[in-house]
Every structure is written in structure tokens, then in C-alpha cells.
TrEMBL record, chain A:
Domain of life (superkingdom): Bacteria
Record's bilayer topology term: Multi-pass membrane protein
Family: Belongs to the binding-protein-dependent transport system permease family. LivHM subfamily.
Protein species of origin: Gemmobacter caeni
Recorded coiled-coil stretches: none
Signal peptide start and end residues: none
Residue intervals passing through the bilayer: 12-33, 40-62, 68-89, 98-119, 145-165, 194-216, 228-254, 275-296
Compartments, as annotated in UniProt: Cell membrane
Biological processes annotated in GO: amino acid transport
Molecular-function GO terms, alphabetical: transmembrane transporter activity
Pfam hit, one: BPD_transp_2
Protein name: Amino acid/amide ABC transporter membrane protein 1 (HAAT family)
Automatic annotation (TrEMBL), chain B:
Lipid bilayer topology: Multi-pass membrane protein
GO cellular component terms, semicolon-separated: plasma membrane
Keyword Membrane found: yes
Upper lineage: Bacteria, Pseudomonadati, Pseudomonadota, Alphaproteobacteria, Rhodobacterales
Protein name in the entry: Amino acid/amide ABC transporter membrane protein 2 (HAAT family)
Amino acid sequence: MSLQLLFDALSLGGIYAIAALGIALIFGVMKLVNFAHGQFIACAVFALILPSTDAVAALGLGLLPTPLLILAILGFGAGLAVAAEALVFRPLRNASPVALMVGSFALGVALQNFLLVLYGGRPKAISLWAGLGAPVRIGPAEVPLLQLIVIAAVIAILLALGLMLKRSRLGLEMRAAAADFGMAQLLGVRANRVISGAFALSGALAAVVALVMVAQTGVADVRMGGQIMLIAFIATVVGGMGSLPGAVAAGLAIGAASALLQAGLPDAARPFRDAFLYALVIVVLLFRPQGLFAAADAKPRV
Amino acid sequence: MITQHRIRRRMATTTPILLALLLLAFVALTLALGDRAAARMASETLIRVTLVVGFWIFAGNSGVISFGHAAFACVGAYVSAWTTLNPAMKATLLPGLPPALAEAHWHVLPAALTAGLVAAALALVTGAAILRLSGIAASIATFAFLAMVNTIWANWTPVTGGTSSVVGLARYVTPWVALGWAIAAILAASLYAASASGLALRATREDEVAASASGIDQYRHRLLAYTLSAFFCGVGGALAGHFIGVINPDGFYLSLTFLMLAMLVVGGIGSLSGAVIGVLAVSLAVEALVRLEKGFTLGTATFALPPGSQEIIIAVAMILVLVFRPAGLMAGREIMLPARWVTGRGTSQN
């Protein structure tokens, strides 16, 4: 039981951490709270299937062999995010964070309605990787194979991203831009490259979340990115805005809290799990309004 | 001798009067020229004026965008439904209501006031936590608050009816009722904006650090504005419920949040006139687009926009406004009478 709970918590928290990273990366470089991230996830899900308003989905990209499929969807997510940056956020580059946030909200609404026009409002069944639901015995627990894959993938992604940020030139530039964008530009960091890079990474991370959600639920729904985006926001606030390790840690913590609440709450209260979760977050923020892992320079200097 | 300051004060008092006259003209014009659909559009627009002006009281003065105000409208709509619905109907629709509410059968006006007060009380409690956060983090927390209210309302079936709609609300909202509340909201908003607290709050909007160095308690003024603002959003929600007669938690969720934000951004968040003009402009655009979605005939061919394109067009328009006219249509200015009209004869400045 407890081992099962551990796997539930890790896989859920891992996905939340990936989603939170997607938000925190962009917030780090351009102080944009990306309200369109959930729609990036939804678009990546719908990219798997052909546009139609029928109830049963016909796979499009989803027919590719698995390694190609993963690459194609990651590329689609990255491309979508880069296009969104070029069309919407680049003209708003010098706008206030509030205007950026409102702009991203509008972009999210536009994308969602675009999906509604193309695919209709009803959720569609997708059968992708149906074999992954098979349980695997580990000691006393029975864990779905998918959970193990998710946990492994999350660890691999976090390691790769960490290496990239620490070792590669683009990573270095991103960290410099996150610390002080103006100063980084003066020292020769190319703003467009760093920002496009951050958006591409963020879009690819959104695509990872999309693939995992499709494999878990077997459904494509226009609204499916909304809830996880909200959790990711909360994780970035709890982790301290702009702190990447903070976002990952908070994402894992929220996943764990969510799994614990799911297991611990009485049946009658279970539909309200998310409400308890949000309330818990507000309580945490009451005691640490700057977040748990706030960067040292998070406070504005005068 | 009349001072510059007094002239400004007098000019500022003309703003709500002019806005009220503008709305009055809008109602008179649509009722005189239009059909029943136009009258419906007028009521709908004025309800939105109540909502958006309420929203502006907080967002406009503090500069903090809230995504949670649709939740106050949701609470207001349900409070009004709980207190005014026929008790026999409530026994079948909402069996979980406490006895006092289950037997209540109030008149609609005290119900609307209660709706506002309950929303305001909720804002006071949740705002006390949320508004301790800095601007952007507070915005995200209001979004969490919206999702929290929606989760509770969609699942608390015995009391809220869950995701199925609550029907049978008395449909008393005519354009004139909506006009009354819209004008009340405008008056309250301009009184608040002219008050010491409103001024202090706008100071924190311009420069948080300088304001706090001048001894302004940002948290207190934000909380006051948030509470007042929730009152009118609660009332607006109650009106919206009684206008359609059917309420549903998802009617007060993301699409309403988006619409309220779009109106405020298009009109300009910096002034009360911007909020009102934004509602009028976006409502007229939405009405036109909805008619286009239904289809129109040009010669022998019938054209129709695909359903759902209305939101896309509004969203794109909103982004264009943000890019090309970031301060909105009104660019932070108020509609007011010019100085020489308010100073009286013989005392004009030149």
C-alpha cells in the first residue's frame, strides 16, 4: 500500500514538476506567466489525431512508430511555442508583466477555441500505447508499467535539462538572462535566441505532459491542459517565482500532497481533493509569501 | 479664487454623471430602435457593466489583475437563487440546503444585496490570504481561487446542483433594472476612486516602493478595494442568473473571466470610463459576431462564421490592443466636462 502510494506520488509529482518547469523557464527569462501553457498541452494532444468533429478519433501523427511519434510531438510542441513567441510575445517584449500575462491568457482562449472549431467540443477516445496499463509487480505493490516509464522519463528529462543549463552555452545564457536580462544583453547574450530557446524547451515539455496524459487517460479533450497548468502555476509560486529547482521541488511536493489526499480523504470529500489542495497552497503562502525556494534576488532592489 | 485642485475635483464629479447619461442614452436608443433581441442585448451589456466596473474597482486602482472575480459572480448568482427560489422547487433541486435557506422565499432586491454581501465577505476572507502576495503571484493565487470555487460548486451537488443547472430563477432583470445597478456600481467606483483609500491604492499601483515609503499600507487598501469590488461582482452574478433564469457553475468560469478581462483591456484598465467604454465596445462587437455566426445573406449566398470564431476574434483583438494601444481605447483618461464648464461664469482661467 505505502509503496504503491510512493509510486503514485512520484509519477504524479513528476508530471507536475515537468509542467511547472515549462512555466518557470519562460517566467525566468522574460517574466511572462504563460497562461497559454495549458493550451500548448491540449494542442500537442490534438496533434496526434486528424481534425474532425466525429466522436471517435482517427490517428494522424499518432500512427507513426513510437520513437518518431515522440520526436514529432516534441517538435510540434516546441514549434508551436516558438511560433507563439514570435507572433504574440515578441511584439509585447517591452510590455509590463501584467500585459504579457493578459496577452497569454488571450492567446490561450484563441487556441482553445481554434481546437473547438477544428475538433468539436466532445472528448474523443484515443487508443495510444494501450499496453502500458499492464501492472508490474514490485515487492508487495502492483504498479502500472506506465508509471514506471513516467518516473524514468521525468528523471531523465530533469538530468538532461540540468546538464544543459549547467554545461551548454545556451543554458548558460538562459541562466544569465534569468538573473538579469538587461545585464546579460549588455554582455553579449542574444535576447531573441535565448527567449526562443526557452519557448522551444517549454513547448517540448508541454508535449511531454501531453503524451503522458494521453497514455494515462486515453482521451483527448479541449480542456485537458487547464487543470495541470493551474497546478504548475501553483508549483511555480510555491517554489518561488523564477526558481527552476524550486518549481521542480514544489511540483513533486504538490504531486505527493495530491496522492496523499486522494488516499487519505474520506470518500465523500474526495471530489473536493483539488479544492483542499488549493487551500493548502494558500496556507503555505500565508507563511512564506515569497515561496519556499525564493531566489535571493527575487525582491526588487531600489 | 478657485484653485486648480477644486477644478479637478469638480471635473472628476462629472465623470459618473456623464457615464450614467451615456448608459441611459444607450438603453433608450436600443429600446427605441431595436427588436426584442436588442433589448436582451441591452440588459446583458448593462449587467456586464456592473460586473466589469466592480472588477475595475480592484484591478484598475491596484494594477493587480484578478482572475477570481468570476467566482464572486458565481457565488452571488447562487446566493440569489438559494434565497429567492420557490421552496417546493428547492426541496427537489437542492435537497442539501440548510433549513433556513430551504424555506427562504425572499424578494429579489434583498436577495441581490445579500448576494453582494456574501461575495464581499468571501473576498474579505480569501483576500486576507491572497493579497499578501506580490502582484503577479497574487494574480496566480486568484486563479487558484477561481478554480477552487468552480471545483466546489461543480461537486457539492446537494447544495449547488453540481454541474446540472439550477432552473426557475425569477426573470426580473429588464434593461431598466440592469441600468439601475450599473449606475450604482459606477457611483460606488468613482466615490472609491476619489477617496483617500483609492488615491493611496493608485499610488501603490504606480510605485510600490515609493508608496510604502510614504507610509501607505498597500495590503489594507488592496483588501478594501477587493471587498468592495467583490460586492458588485456578486450583485452582477445575481443579475446575470436572474436574466437568463438558469445558472450553472461553468457559466461563471473561464469564459466569463476572459470576457471581463477583454472588456477591461480593450477599454483601458487605467480609468473608470475605460471600463465602461470597453464593455460597450466589446458587447457590440460580440453581438455583431454572434449574428454573423448565425449567418447573413448577401445577394443569393448565405455566409456564416464557424461557431466558436467569435471568441477567437475577440482574443485576437485583445492581443492587438495590447500590442498597439497598451493603455486601451481610453488610454487612462476619464470622460469629463472641460474645466471652463465647471468653474462657472467669470472665474474661468483665461
